[in-house]
Amino acid sequence: MKNIYCLLIxxxxxxxxxxxxxxxxxxxxxxxxxxxxxxxxxxxxxxxAKDTEGFMWFGTGSGLNRYDGRxxxxxxMPGISYRxxxxxxxxxxxxxxxxxxxxxxxxxxxxxxxxxxxxSVSKQPVxxxxxxxxxxxxCWGYLPVNCRK
Length: 149
Fold this sequence. Notes:
Blueprint: H1 2-18, E1 45-50, E2 56-60, E3 63-67, E4 72-75, E5 87-90, E6 95-100, E7 103-108, E8 113-116, E9 130-133, E10 139-142
Antiparallel strand pairs: 1-2, 2-3, 3-4, 5-6, 6-7, 7-8, 9-10
């Protein structure tokens, strides 16, 4: 047991010796704070993604927000003024994959519209508790507990 503690201490010392001596600290100038005063639709942010064009996308409690480095543009689903966007993932230059209240949507960036993702057989909206989108466009997810058979 004594040898294990010695090994752990030596391991930590080796790891810390590899760190740069003048480790940088972060200051306020390294961050930009954005909120509703800057045009964000809601300060309740659930997800952030950066797309290939350099836009920042924010999923908030009241919609999808695109930030170009200076201004925000807010996108809301038709007929629903405050639909929470829980997750935003950039798929490619044309689409974002979104989760809103466990339903999946594609956001068509060119036409600025939301497209529900539906099962090809039942034509019902696809519901995922969580998902991961791969760089090749494939998506892996799992169903919410109340939807499993």
